[in-house]
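It is worth pausing here to work through a concrete case rather than discussing structure prediction in the abstract. The textbook approach is simple: state the sequence, then state the predicted structure, then interpret. We follow exactly that order.
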Amino acid sequence: MSQGELTIDDYELVNCIATGNVSQVWEVRGVTSGKSYAMKLLLPEALTDNEQKRTMRHEASVMSKLEHPNIVQFVESHIARKQAYIIMELFRSVNLKALLRSDLHATHLRIKRVMECVTQALAYMHESKWIHKDVKPDNILVTKGGEVRVIDFSLAPKVCWSSYIQISSMMTFFSVSKSSFRKAGRMMSARISIARSWYSGSTVA
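Step two, the predicted structure:
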C-alpha cells in the first residue's frame, strides 16, 4: 500500500466500511477504470497467517463460481505475500443485523421480501452444490429499497448432496437427546392448544 496515495495496486482506498478480526472492507475506486468497488482486505497481522490466506483464496474461488442477483458479485482477487484482497461489487447498504437494531418496524415490513431473496440465493447455491454454512443477519445486506445481497463465503464447502443428506440425517438422529424430544413434545402441545383456542373462537364468532 502506498501511504501517501492510499492505493493498493490499481485501487484507491476511499472509505473504510467495516473492520473485523482479520480483515477490513473498503470502498475503493479503480485508478484506471474510475469505477467504485468493495475490497475485502486482509489486515497486516493476518498476512503472516497462511491459514487466513487459504481461507480468503477459498472464498474468492467460491465467489468466482457464483452468479446470482442476490449474491454479491465477484470481480477479482489478489493473494500474495505482501497483499491479499478480494474485489467485489460495491453494494451500498447495511447488514440485516444493523437494520434490526436501528429500525425494527421498517425491517418487519420488508422481511418477507428479504427472506425470499435470501432463500433464492441459497437455493441457487445448493443447486450449484455449495452450502453457505454461515447464514446470519451480519452476512445479509439490505438496501432501503429492499434489494438484498448474501455475502461471506469463507466457510462454504462444495458437497455431494446424496452423501451429505444421508450423513446429516444419521448424525441428526443420533444426536437428538431425550430432553430434546420432551421439549419438542411440549412445543407441539402448546401449538395444538393455541390452534384449538383459535379455532374455537373463530367457530363461536
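Step three, interpretation. The CA atoms of residues 35 and 184 lie 53 Å apart. The two ends are 71 Å apart (CA to CA).
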